[in-house]
Design goal:
alpha/beta; Rossmann fold; 6 helices; 34% helix
């Protein structure tokens, strides 16, 4: 591994640690209030309004909460799928209930019990992430699950959900990293 690659990896790890600390510093109530503001911006996006199928993530550890968005999508008649990690791959499965369709999964994240796989290419995918910059470069959690999934599903429309404190002036990135089409925070939309 070249020195610049080692430096970039170290920079990403330091950024992950910083953001983890910022997320922990917020109360559950603050995270919920900011998540509701992200939800309001998201629900007004044309990409969301046109989508019949949503690929959502199940939040954990003070990420932007997704349950209220998922409930809103269900109420509007949209189909919702969430990811399940299978080895090094990630697949999405439809859910219609948090209580009946989810179980404890990888990394302490709720995952769907295997059911109907979501195979739609014409869908909106919510991307989680650790940090973003105004050019929509993304630092993920380091597993590469979303990059690998999106390489196989290039037609999906992607929107990242983030808190404003996750947006940095510049984040380290690789040329092959997949950037979301938009990043929605409680204060703005980056395009």
């Amino acid at each position: 591994m070249q020195k610049k690659d080692i430096d970039r990896k170290q920079e990403k790890n330091e950024l992950r640690k910083e953001i983890r600390g910022l997320r922990k510093a917020h109360t559950d109530e603050e995270i919920h209030e900011m998540s509701l503001a992200v939800k309001e911006r998201l629900l007004n996006l044309p990409e969301y309004q046109k989508a019949g199928v949503i690929y959502a993530y199940m939040d954990c550890k003070h990420e932007v909460e997704t349950r209220d968005v998922i409930r809103a999508a269900w109420a509007e008649g949209k189909r919702v799928a969430v990811p399940k990690v299978l080895g090094q791959e990630m697949r999405f499965y439809y859910i219609t209930s948090f209580e009946k369709d989810l179980e404890d999964g990888s990394f302490g994240i709720k995952e769907p019990r295997e059911g109907e796989p979501a195979e739609e290419q014409d869908a909106l995918l919510f991307m989680p992430g650790v940090a973003f910059d105004p050019d929509r470069h993304r630092v993920g959690y380091g597993g590469g699950f979303y990059d690998r999934f999106l390489e196989r599903h290039p037609k999906l429309v992607t929107v990242a959900l983030a808190f404003e404190f996750q947006v940095k002036e510049k984040v380290p990135f690789e040329e092959f990293d997949i950037r979301p089409a938009k990043v929605v925070t409680e204060k703005r939309i980056l395009t």
